[in-house]
Protein: Chromate transporter
Organism: Brevibacillus composti
Amino acid sequence: MARTLQEIFLISTKLGLTSFGGPIAHLGYFHEEYVRRRKWIDDASYADLVALCQFLPGPASSQVGIGIGVLRGGVWGGIAAWLGFTLPSALLLALFAYILHLGSFGDAGWIHGLKLVAVAVVAQAVLGMGQKLAVGKMRASIAVLTASVALLWPTAVTQVILILLAGLLGCVLWRDSSQTAPANLHIPISRRFALGCLLLFFAFLLVLPWISRSSGVAWLQLFDSLYRAGSLVYGGGHVVLPLLEREFVPTGLLSSEDFLAGYGAAQAVPGPLFTFASYLGAMVGGPSGAIVATLAIFLPAFLLVIGCLPFWDVLRSHPRAQGALAGINAAVVGILLAALYNPIWTSTILSPADFAMAAILFALLVFWKLPPWVVVVIGATGGWLLSILS
């Protein structure tokens, strides 16, 4: 078992050091490494696992990696796979937070350039997700209505309600969706253990807010904020942005400039975008804050993957579940569209030069297909040049 866990950790660490390009690209890297090269899982089972992780809230690519680790080495295999894939980007972003703490960089040109990168990256995500998840009149309408309501009533509770309503609407509109026969997965987890993980997931979600408010302990409040964000996000890393923004910026824990600078820096590192939480935790509470934040935002992913794997074949055989997912995905596009406008656009695009730079970065990402880390370097350099010329 120890040799298996070591193998899982080393291979996932290699992926964590080289997997640039966001969750969709990560799934491609995983397929190449785990399916084609290692043959740890076949194509049908891999597709089944990806479908499950797309259905669940949380970081889809990280959940797929955790699931493969679980299938290969049980619960400890899932932990090894997550640790290897997550640690490189978490350390880099915590280091970036430390560098920001060394001096006041809020007005630096390169920081503004990172914020312009965030505009381009989120715009690219809205475009790509909209073309896949908001096709047709009904799904597009759900996306637009969701964006409108999210902008008019900008709270984290509003976003959760919108996702739930979209799921219910999807159950009605697409209840007769055609289904394909699910592939069988060998799950080395008992249903009793899985049910315990699901109960623990909901217990944390319901009890943590009460405990954190009544105790007044700073690290508990941080854990609660990040756990809730990791529990309620559909659509991957980019969609966590508005939830985290509501938790950290209006409350005064972090300035809007530092928040968007960290989000821009997160585009330059490989691995999961959810390690943006490592940066937030480090900014708020130093090294211990980074550890607490990282564990908190990924814990729901663990509990949900382990809790749902044994029941997935039964769930996905129901057309209503697929209909709910269609509605939720359309709402996710709307939430991301609202986040593109506020806080990203309103706090970043302040002049024609800003718009021109953001448009260039967007073109480099979408049309020239440059790697995100290259666009980050170009954006930081461009922001620095704009500050000199202005």
